[in-house]
Amino acid sequence: MAAPEVTHLPNLPNDVEGLRQSIRDAVVRVVGEDPRQATERDWMEALAFAIRERMVERRLLTRRQFADEDVKRVYYLSMEYLIGRMLEANLRNMGILEPARQAMADLGVNLDTILDLEDDAALGNGGLGRLAACILESLATQGYPGYGYGIRYEFGMFRQEFEPYHQVEHPDNWLRYGNPWEFPRSDRKYPIHFYGHVVEHHHPRGETRYTWENGEEVLAMAYDYPTAGYGRRNVNNLRLWAAKATRDFDLRYFNEGDYIRAVADKAESETISMVLYPNDATAIGKELRLKQEYFFVSASLQDILDRHLALGYNLDALPDKVAIQLNDTHPAIAVAELMRLLVDCHELSWDRAWDLARRTFAYTNHTLMPEALETWPVELMERVLPRHMGIIYQINHDFLEQVRHRYPGDNDRLARLSIIDEQNGRRVRMAHLAVVGSHRVNGVAALHTQLLQETLFEDFYNLWPERFVNVTNGVTPRLWMIQANPALTELLGQRIGNDWQYDLDRLRALEPYAHDADLQKAFLDVKRANKVRLANLVRERTGVELNPDVMFDVQIKRIHEYKRQLLKLLHVVDLYRRIRAGEDVAPRVVLFGGKAAPGYARAKGIIQVINEVADIVNHDPAVGDRLKCVFFPNYEVSSASIIIPAADVSEQISTAGFEASGTGNMKLALNGALTIGTLDGANIEIRDAVGEESIFIFGMTADEVVEHRRNGPNPEAILAQQPNLAAAVEMIESGFFTCDDPGTHGDLGRYLRHEDPFFVIADYAAYTEACERADTLYADRTAWAEAAILNVARMGYFSIDRTVRDYANQIWDIIPEPVAPSRTNGAA
Ligand code: 7GP
Question: One of 239, 387, 558, 604 is an active-site residue; which one?
Fold first, then answer.
């Protein structure tokens, strides 16, 4: 036992005086600057260091308690974490936002100015990555022992600019000034192998053993990001891996005297963690991507096993002490890697290892889009991960044996279920590997899970119905209400207290006041103030003036054909034409935001045409305030938290059957926007929660979409019957909105007239009718306020805390372990 003074934790004060002291000290001791000369950025760093020393203290207390209490832990494996800014969130969740504000003011610094200096941590593309960030925050908030693992990308999601209409991508160099939130762990490094070959060792009695030899080796080094729970002392950890060259990477070239080549090789091996692939819901068949996936999975599993053994557990206890969640198939190679570690490195028998692996893993699917389903050519897998290919063959062999016994002679079924797709040039189906290797598989909304069972995983569902569960997504109210919407938070506090911050169902207490005129007025005032805040940002970023007294109609999400930004755009063009023709239309601001994958030409074309239409509409003196159209550049977490509280209307208009869940729909509705939406993803559950009168549902259902496709859609026939729609399409294709080449949009016209794969044309009439219902309600301010208040009151189900409890109870079998106040050395 070490002496007490060695094991003692510092217990730093959290009052204004104590914080001021820490911050002032940090400017000198950490930043290395004279407080007399410190810049705002110096103060920001000093503040971050003062917070992080408090976070790490609680992190260590949390870890001690978890070890003492023998808890079961969940590990969330995700290629993406779309975190956003950390300073304000950490201050809030640590409970020191207000004292820190005062301490900074005492030092002559305005906290809000400082908060605005921070870059977003954008280590994700969209929904999947943001969900991962929400889940980590909730795990800590509810006191669950839950850890994230991922990649410390040097370059996150690209920065989007328009030049002047089309998207241009710029690198996101978010680490250029260093990062005060991370703890580099130079002692936490694991070797990661690629390439080489497998050698079999036959033992006369006993199983054949395999070694994976030669090949290349990279090191994965850990960087830790403490994650604080709100209103609790628990601080969990997000561990991100960075690639580092091994020391002897270069021996060969050094010996040959080729120094430059040797150093260049070092740089090459470190590219693994260099950049996030900016693709949302599309698989990237690149070797580097496979290496990224294996890199972080292998490092994470080695680390998990190390910790498990260091805590004194044996490997047979793995599923009792460890749950591992695979966030989509990106980490699915974990199934084979855990088998390799258990069988080759820890010398367990194959059957014992398989039983442990399957009981440890669970897999979340986030999309039904066929182009998102990851498959790797067998040839590539054999070259990059030869041992894993062998393991996958063995898993598949055992699995298909089982299927053969269950369905004798059904070879078609075997081919459909096989982990190896023999039809398309032999590929490994990662989703099949994930399903076979997991004890639970979940979709992210009720409809999505149902469709998984009926389509993508139908054969697996028939085989193992008990494996499939639904866990509807949620969002964290800490970021998406308390931080993003302080004015509404304040109003809620006055009316119903603050319990909803921990238990979002308590928002229901607002229901009885929905027709209270005072509340309605206060609610509309809050919304207007939020619209003014957004209008200021839009002016700053785009130069466009918005009138906060008209409806703000918002579609913010990745640009995708199935999400149907074109449907909204056709509505804008239709309104514009009618305004020019002297018609009286309800005024609105239409705001788009979102990025297109750099290689997704159609999505980039959609951005371009929106920008072109916006430019004409916004400058046409005949239009004035009746219509404004804005494409908000570089939509990210930090701008989302300004846009969402200002929205009156939330556009959730994907082709039914394509949006797995959506989470933007939840954030917007929680902030009092009314949804115009299809019966897709979680929109259905939102409708059930808020009631028909607080949502504008339209369009084909998922079944009708299938039916419509089967009948052979005919967009031209529909256009012939809808003169307004036809006129809008014509206006675009005729080149009305393009200044240079009028032919640019001919292709878009052809696409809509002859292909229309996501039924924009077929749903248009129903869509505009839903928009008109919204306009009518909006014109009645009292009725609108009532509907919007009820909407807020009934969104409790969509808290990420409920989502995380569903995972904990149905999948992980873990319980909360709140850190006891006594453990904090008496700290308040
Ligand atoms: C998204 C889904 O498109 C969205 O509907 C859902 O709300 C979100 O995941 C969280 O579950 N999917 C992705 O972002 C994605 O990249 C491909 O999926 C793997």
Answer: 558
Sign of the C-alpha dihedral, residues 242, 248, 250, 252? negative
Contacts of 51 (CB under 8 A, 6+ apart): 87, 90, 91, 94, 96, 100
Q: Is the residue at 734 inside a domain?
A: no
Element (H, E) at 442: strand 440-443
pLDDT at 43: 98
Q: In the prediction, which pLDDT does 825 show?
A: 45
787 pocket-lining for ligand 1 (C-beta < 6 Å)? no
Whether residues 789 and 651 share a domain: the answer is yes
Does position 248 have pLDDT exceeding 80, yes or no?
no
CB 75 within 8 A of CB 323: yes
Q: What is the pLDDT of residues 517-558, one digit of tens each?
A: 999 999 999 999 999 999 999 999 999 999 999 999 999 999
Q: Are residues 58 and 174 in the same domain?
A: no
Query: Phi/psi of residue 479, each to 5°?
Result: -75, -50
Our answer to whether residue 663 is catalytic in this structure is yes
- Token representation of residue 219: 């090191």
Kindly state whether residue 493 falls inside one of the protein's structural domains: no
- For residue 769, being part of any structural domain is answered with yes
3-state SS assignment for residue 145: coil
Q: End-to-end distance of the chain based on CA atoms, in angstroms? A: 28
Q: Which of these is catalytic: 52, 340, 366, 478? A: 366
Query: What is the number of the ligand 1 atom nearest to the C-alpha of 282?
Result: 17
Which of the following is catalytic: 340, 563, 571, 595? 563
Query: pLDDT tier at 824 (50, 70, 90 boundaries)?
Result: very low
What's the CA gap between 691 and 680, in Å, rounded?
A: 16
The structural domain count of the chain equals 3
- Name the active-site residue from 360, 375, 663, 768: 663
Cβ–ligand 1 distance for 664 under 6 Å, the answer no
2 falls in which pLDDT band (50, 70, 90)? Answer: low
Quote the ligand 1 centre to 57 CA distance (angstroms): 35
- Say whether both 80 and 23 belong to one domain: no
- Residue 429 annotated in active site: no
Ligand 1 pocket member 803 (CB < 6 A): no
Across 405-409, 455-459, 738-742, 747-751, least confident range: 738-742
Residues 590 and 672 in one domain: yes
For residues 420 and 297, membership in a common domain is answered with yes
Whether ligand 1 lies within 6 angstroms of the CB of 127 is answered as yes
User: Is residue 661 within 6 Å of ligand 1 at its C-beta?
Assistant: yes
| Cβ-contact 428, 378 below 8 angstroms | yes
Nearest-CA residue for ligand 1 atom 7 is 662
Is 58 among the catalytic positions?
A: no
CA 398/CA 354 separation, integer angstroms: 10
Report helix, strand or coil for 676: strand
Tokens for 245? 């060259």
Same domain, 398 and 446: yes
Task: Say if residues 791 and 690 touch (Cβ distance below 8 Å).
Answer: yes
Specify if 505 maps to a domain. Answer: no
pLDDT of residue 256: 75
CATH code, domain with 172: 3.40.50.2000
Please check whether residues 528 and 625 belong to one and the same domain: yes
> ipTM for the complex?
0.98
Write the pLDDT tens digit of every residue in 350-387: 999 999 999 999 999 999 999 999 999 999 999 999 99
Identify whether 346 is a catalytic site residue: no
Question: Among candidates 92, 78, 172, which has minimal Cα distance to 131?
Answer: 78
Point out the ligand 1 atom lying closest to the alpha carbon of residue 364: 11
CB burial of 591-604 (b: ≥16 within 10 Å; e: otherwise) equals bbbbbbbbebeebb
Domain that holds residue 45: 11-68+86-119
Mutate to test the pocket of ligand 1, among 128, 328, 804 (most ligand atoms within 8 A of CB): 128
Other beta carbons within 10 angstroms of residue 255's beta carbon come to 9
